[in-house]
Amino acid sequence: MFKRRGSLINYLQPYGYCGIYVPRLELQPLAVLARQEDGSLFGNIGLLTSIVGSGTPIPFTIQAGEPFVPLSGSISFSLGAAIGMDFLGNMLTVIQGADVKLELQVKKGSSLHFSFEEVLQDRVELLQIENYLKRVPVRLMQVGFARDLQRGKLYIVTSTLRSAKFSVTFEKARAIGLELGAKTPWNVGEGTLTLSELANTSTARMTYNGPRPLVFGFQAVQAVYSSSSYNSLKLLKSEAMRGTSASGYRMLNVEQACVLE
């Protein structure tokens, strides 16, 4: 959809994080993602302790709710033709009870400004994960998972960024297909969505504010195995990740190679 340079979902690269096109509630450290041949990462496989283990619990220390720097920036699009994009509308569908359908027609030369406030970081130390994988055997839950494990397609989330208040401003953008009602703000799940369009301009601004932070960025490592024996960890590049399913819950796509050598 986007050219690689300046892509919306690359906005966290300078911070060393992978950006998520559709922020979600449930992604957390120790979540396991499995990569397929087409570069997809499927979430909700389970936590590391439920997939790799001997049945004896080994506690992890997760540093939760650490303050992170506020994130903001601008992205310019260079598109050969107009495209339809439903950035904030789709991201809010992950909230229970949300019924949002919002599409923006982004034209050539458009720019996007984003801002995440009161950002929190949840993380687990890599050394804890490595020590765990060295100590416990693999519990092969199914043949397909075993094959993915042998091919080095198992990824473990080590850190996430979340925020309950963020905004997106589109320059030279026109809101179309708006189905949120006749007034603003709207109640969306547990939070509120505000849409404003400046008079006599082509600028649209969308703001979300809710009590539960949504995860919009993460870091992950690849677990490398050989014959069911753990070998090492490799870091994911901070490349673009984007939700591709209708709900945004299950699938993330990687646009470039995601393993740091």
TrEMBL record:
The keyword Membrane applies. It is found in: Cell membrane; Cytoplasm. Keywords: Antiviral defense, Cell membrane, Cytoplasm, Membrane, Transmembrane, Transmembrane beta strand. Its main location: membrane. It is a multi-pass membrane protein. It comes from the Bacteria. Signal peptide: none annotated. InterPro entries: GSDM_bact-type (IPR058978). Belongs to the bacterial gasdermin family. This is Gasdermin bGSDM. It comes from Thermosporothrix sp. COM3. The lineage of its organism: Bacteria, Bacillati, Chloroflexota, Ktedonobacteria, Ktedonobacterales.
